[in-house]
Amino acid sequence: MAFREVYEKFVDLHYQPGKDELLCSFYIEPMRGEKIARAAGAVAAESSVGTWTDVPGLKMAHVSRIAATCFEIDGNWIKVAYPADNFEAGSIPQVYSAIAGNIFGMKAVDNIRLMDVQWPAWFVKSFSGPQFGISGVRKFMKIKKRPILACVPKPKVGMTSQEHAEIGYQIWTGGLDLLKDDENLTSQPFNRFDERVKLCMRQRARAEKETGERKACLLNITAPGAEMRRRAKLVADAGNEYVMVDIMTVGWSALQEMRDVCQELHLALYAHRAFHAAFTRNKRHGVSMLMIAETARLIGVDNIHIGTAIGKLAGDKPEVLSIHEHISKQKVTENKKLHLLSEDWCGLKPVISTSSGGLHPGIVPRIMHMLGNDCAIQVGGGVHGHPGGSMKGAMAFRQAVDADVEGISLAEYAKKHAELAQALETWGYLHTK
Ligand code: CAP
Ligand code: MG
Q1: Which end of the chain is more exposed for a tag (fewer CB within 10 A), N or C?
Q2: Distance between CA 244 and CA 221 in Å, rounded?
Q3: Pairwise CA distance, residues 97 & 410, whole Å
Q4: Cis, bond preceding 120 (omega within 30 deg of 0)
Q5: Ligand found nearest the CA of 273
């Protein structure tokens, strides 16, 4: 067979995928002069059993049985079905090597974006999912109705462990729940991890005593594997409930391992997504953030950053809402407009959608209207940039949330809450850029 025809063997628009097959929705732009069907076939071939030319083995029944098939082409959108035996249960690296691997570099496509996957039940069931989810975190933090509130010290790196822990005291007593490390703070010379844990725990005890509320730290254990494990143990021994991991920079395999470590140590796992935008931001190429968030749900993080739609970082409202839906619902229906597939999460707990990046009290209610109360909201600059300092900034953030839960407008609530009034004078209701 001439090599031009090999790929088209992987397209069958009458094919009906079986229930154990994994389905992918891709956006593709064929290279100049290439037909969409051949480009679609190239994607199905290279991500399953094929290569650029015919090889005798493709005719063997047990090989052709697991060949992927492009079964739908709609403009630049295609759907591909992968028979179950393409994949190893319980392994995210392996599934990514197939459906998000070589195909991104193929000359047959100028651009290709993996939008969504429909994970078959057998694959979903090979993962544990989140340990706690929103109800588990509400329980140990003793937070009934409102969103969970986190705050990251700013400047993001440079302050000493002591300064960091003191900010913790301020934001906790100002009314917030979680003190979060920034993504690029791990254990630098000015703020060593072990020292930070010790000092933060001291300040937490003080803040809990004074407020009567539960407080916790999102301690960034990101490091090479063995050191991450050591840091997680240190956090658990210190009595803290949470660890944070930069899930994209450590990689899927390390995250899967840390999920197990967290189970052994009864730690909740907070996922920071720094690095995701390198491949999620371009709408015509790469992997969608939805894919990343769904993968994080399978593995079992308890929180993940999903964007704000109105803050300083890229990510529009339909994207933020669809991620929220896919990581918090048990069953999700197909969204033809956004080319998203249906899903049944087979009982895996929801992940807590965490909205962060350029937020301040004036726009917090908009996040709550978008995501509801079952979410976490994370604010850095919008707390520490408050003219009265971090504690007043934290109070203003909490007041904005309380006002919304009580159904009172911020302007009205600010009449009796000076900290909120000052925040509104400083930042108004403006979207950040
Ligand atoms: C927020 C933040 C978070 C981003 C991450 C920052 O600080 O700490 O890392 O939200 O982005 O450093 O930018 P600010 P995303 O509140 O001061 O913006 O949530 O999109 O993953
Ligand atoms: Mg940050």
Answers
A1: C
A2: 6
A3: 48
A4: no
A5: 1
CB 157 less than 6 A from any atom of ligand 1: no
3-state secondary structure of 270: strand
Determine which residue's CA is closest to atom 11 belonging to ligand 1: 357
Name the residue at shortest CA distance from atom 19 of ligand 1: 356
Q: What is the pLDDT along the chain (433 residues), one digit of tens a residue?
A: 444 578 989 999 999 999 999 999 999 999 999 999 999 999 999 999 999 888 999 999 999 999 999 999 999 999 999 999 999 999 999 999 999 999 999 999 999 999 999 999 999 999 999 999 999 999 999 999 999 999 999 999 999 999 999 999 999 999 999 999 999 999 999 999 999 999 999 999 999 999 999 999 999 999 999 999 999 999 999 999 999 999 999 999 999 999 999 999 999 999 999 999 999 999 999 999 999 999 999 999 999 999 999 888 888 999 999 999 999 999 999 999 999 999 999 999 999 999 999 999 999 999 999 999 999 999 999 999 999 999 999 999 999 999 999 999 999 999 999 999 999 999 999 888 8
Among residues 164, 180, 272, 360, the one annotated as catalytic is 272
Q: Confirm or reject: Cβ of 381 under 6 Å from ligand 1.
A: yes
> Is the C-alpha dihedral spanning 202, 205, 208, 211 positive or negative?
negative
Q: Is 154 a residue of the active site?
A: yes
What is the rounded distance in angstroms from the CA atom of residue 125 to the CA atom of residue 412?
Answer: 49
Mutation pick for ligand 1 pocket among 246, 354, 356, 363 (CB with most ligand atoms within 8 Å)? 356
Beta bridge partners of 70: 11, 80
Q: Which domains are assigned to the chain?
A: 2-124 (3.30.70.150), 133-427 (3.20.20.110)
pTM beyond 0.85: the answer is: yes
